[in-house]
């Protein structure tokens, strides 16, 4: 008698539709998330513009952390991080670094670093002028330096994210990873990451910004950083003959 093989318990339905590769959906998801972030930043700017005074939780948070009894070196660290990222020192540091990169003939990274600093900081200033939120009142909380610049979004926070963030991105690129002295970059990478993480808290602790200001600065910085990293990674932004055509052909073949 002929034996029949047992029917499988689970059957997989056959479909004629091809599967969508993950690499096709990933850029779309990235674009969606980026525009959602932009919408969130725009909404936050409108809300802060209509309510420029600090919210109750912001006032409570600032007063709470300023009441902490922290070691003197912690406050000194916050002050140092803030000072080196003030507009003039940070602008000079960026200019020196860009000139150094140009001398070393790292043309494309130097130009993109200059672009992101110029464009992102300019947009941040425009948003600040449009929102026109005043700085924290020294009669309400302790303020280290009374400033007349707009408060939302935090310019220090945004600048640190885009400047050090782009340098971290460059330091993780393949040519740098294959550099024989790459281990010497690790302390600098740690310092840059620490600066990004701590700058927001430092600005609130010193009474220079409210919580929503630094959150807006982080969001603004992340938006422009991811945009320029995307542009830097595209084939059609490479400065060589035929790069635009190569980029279009690569996009069609995906």
Put the structure in a nutshell.
With 254 residues, the chain is mainly α.
Can you describe what's shown?
With 254 residues, the protein is mainly alpha-helical. The protein is 67% helix and 0% strand. It contains ten helices and no strands. It has helices at 22-50, 56-66, 72-84, 87-103, 107-131, 155-171, 174-177, 186-205, 211-233, 243-252. Helix 6 runs antiparallel to helix 8 and helix 6 runs parallel beside helix 9. The model is unreliable at 7-22 and 241-248 (pLDDT under 50).
Question: Which helices and strands appear, and what pairs or packs with what?
Answer:
Elements: H1 22-50, H2 56-66, H3 72-84, H4 87-103, H5 107-131, H6 155-171, H7 174-177, H8 186-205, H9 211-233, H10 243-252
Helix pairs in contact: 1-9, 3-8, 4-5, 5-6, 5-9, 6-8, 6-9, 8-9
Pick out its properties.
single chain, 254 residues, mainly alpha, 10 helices, globular
Helix and strand sequence: HHHHHHHHHH
Number of strands: 0
- How does the major sheet shape up? none
Cα(first) to Cα(last) distance is: 53 Å
**What is the C-alpha radius of gyration, as a whole number of Å?**
24 Å
Q: Which regions contain 5 or more consecutive residues with pLDDT less than 50?
A: 7-22, 241-248
Oligomer: single chain
Helix share bin: 55-70%
Structural class from helices and strands? mainly alpha
Global geometry: globular
Strand-residue proportion: under 5%
Q: What is the mean predicted local confidence, pLDDT?
A: 85
């Amino acid at each position: 008698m002929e034996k029949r093989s047992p029917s499988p318990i689970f059957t997989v339905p056959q479909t004629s539709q091809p599967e969508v590769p993950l690499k096709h959906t990933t850029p779309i998801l990235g674009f969606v998330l980026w525009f959602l972030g932009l919408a969130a930043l725009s909404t936050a700017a409108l809300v802060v513009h209509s309510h420029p005074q600090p919210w109750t939780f912001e006032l409570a948070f600032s007063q709470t952390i300023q009441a902490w009894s922290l070691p003197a070196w912690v406050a000194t660290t916050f002050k140092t991080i803030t000072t080196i990222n003030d507009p003039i020192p940070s602008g000079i540091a960026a200019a020196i670094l860009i000139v150094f990169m140009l001398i070393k003939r790292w043309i494309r990274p130097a130009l993109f670093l200059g672009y992101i600093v110029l464009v992102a900081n300019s947009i941040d200033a425009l948003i600040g002028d449009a929102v026109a939120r005043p700085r924290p009142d020294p009669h309400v909380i302790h303020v280290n330096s009374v400033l007349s610049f707009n408060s939302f979004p935090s310019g220090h926070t945004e600048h640190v994210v885009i400047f050090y963030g782009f340098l971290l991105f460059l330091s993780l690129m393949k040519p740098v990873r294959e550099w024989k002295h790459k281990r010497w970059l690790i302390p600098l990478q740690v310092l840059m990451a620490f600066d990004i993480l701590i700058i927001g808290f430092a600005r609130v602790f010193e009474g220079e910004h409210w919580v929503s200001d630094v959150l807006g600065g982080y969001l603004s910085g992340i938006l422009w950083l991811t945009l320029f990293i995307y542009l830097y990674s595209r084939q059609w932004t490479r400065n060589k003959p035929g790069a635009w055509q190569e980029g279009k052909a690569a996009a069609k073949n995906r």
